């Protein structure tokens, strides 16, 4: 019996018809796998399975995921990011720091500021939601401006983020943006590519960010991530989720918080 594999036209175009056909008949299909999204086991003989091709500058890696987590797709990442994903998949990498800095924001004019990202769970309407909190390490000035002003929030609002006045309300969806998880770790926040092309990284981790089992369970349930952003000095590195929520509340009350809701990379909707 052939495996229950989905190979999208986009993946087929990258790996070629011969390899795609070998996968579909079971010659090159895995007997089991850890889902590249939720990191739980999968069996192509019993679970409908997506082929996910991660493509870097010089390397491409084929991974597998539950079709209920993400569809078959091609995901473009940096070469460094791809090597980190490979190490995560094979178990050769050490556990990364809880909140590493990353590159970006690529989608903000004058980007390349260093951003810190913290993951946590936010209680809204009696339900826990997976969240990321983004905070630069320094002010971000608008390109061409002479002063040392901080335009991080206005630039994000121009990208579609919405000011938060009440953290008990779910942020609105942001079309075309998504959060990339690979091997159960956070690798990037993606934004729409130019002229409708493949998504590109707005933020990407130098080293994949580990998230808790509870965070993964929540994102598995909601298939969405709440992304909050605040200027430097607004949130800080909070050791507990209750303190993180307090910091978000204070930033919102001060008019220093924006947010958006994003699906996992490749999932439908926005």
Question: What are the defining features of this structure?
Answer:
single chain; 270 residues; alpha+beta; 2 domains; four-stranded mixed β-sheet; globular
How would you sum up this structure in a few lines?
This protein is of the alpha+beta class. It folds into two domains: 72 residues, no CATH class; 163 residues, no CATH class. The protein is 22% helix and 31% strand.
Structure report:
This protein has 270 residues and is α+β, with helices and mostly antiparallel strands. The chain has 2 domains: 5-76, no CATH class; 101-263, no CATH class. It has helices at residues 9-15, 17-25, 79-90, 152-159, 213-222, 241-253, and strands spanning 5-6, 33-34, 41-42, 49-55, 60-66, 73-76, 101-103, 115-124, 127-136, 162-163, 178-182, 185-191, 200-210, 224-229, 258-263. The chain has a 9-stranded mixed beta sheet, with helices on both faces. Strands 1, 4, 5 and 6 form a 4-stranded mixed beta sheet that branches. Strand 12 and strand 13 form a beta hairpin. The longest helix has 13 residues, at 241-253. It is globular, with a radius of gyration of 19 Å. The chain starts with a strand and ends in a 7-residue tail after the last strand.
